[in-house]
Design a protein that fits this description.
The chain is of the alpha+beta class. It has helices at residues 38-49, 53-66, 76-92, and strands spanning 2-6, 12-16, 25-31, 68-75, 98-103. The strands form 2 sheets. It has a 3-stranded antiparallel sheet. The protein has a two-stranded antiparallel sheet with strand order 1-2. It is elongated. 21% of the residues are buried. Involved in the modulation of the specificity of the ClpAP-mediated ATP-dependent protein degradation.
């Protein structure tokens, strides 16, 4: 929306109102596999997603029993950074843990 305004010299200026929207949020998902130890998943959740030990264990169990679990919800840049960090650590440790980010509100995989 715009509205006219005048400066001191009497010239008309147009002032623009800008609307800001909250950025779209992305879910970071951990996917189950048969090789990554549960303790490693808990460690990742505590270290990179700042989960308490109890919350990390609950998410790890969801990953184990349901095939996936939500590690956290972030803006896109932060979600992609966390995916890269966790994937790098998992590969360094020799685990195939899959981590991905998807827009919030999207259906389950």
């Amino acid at each position: 929306m715009t509205r006219p305004d005048t400066d001191r010299a009497g010239h008309t200026q147009t002032l623009e109102r800008t609307e800001t929207r909250k950025p779209r949020l992305w879910r970071v998902l951990l996917l189950n596999d048969d090789y990554t130890p549960m303790d490693f998943v808990v460690l990742v959740l505590e270290r990179y997603f700042r989960k308490t030990e109890q919350d990390a264990e609950l998410i790890m169990l969801a990953v184990h029993h349901k095939g996936q679990g939500v590690a956290g919800v972030y803006t896109r840049d932060i979600a992609e950074t966390k995916v890269a960090q966790v994937t790098q650590l998992a590969r360094q440790e020799g685990y195939p843990l899959r981590v991905l980010a998807e827009p919030e509100g999207k259906g389950a995989l």
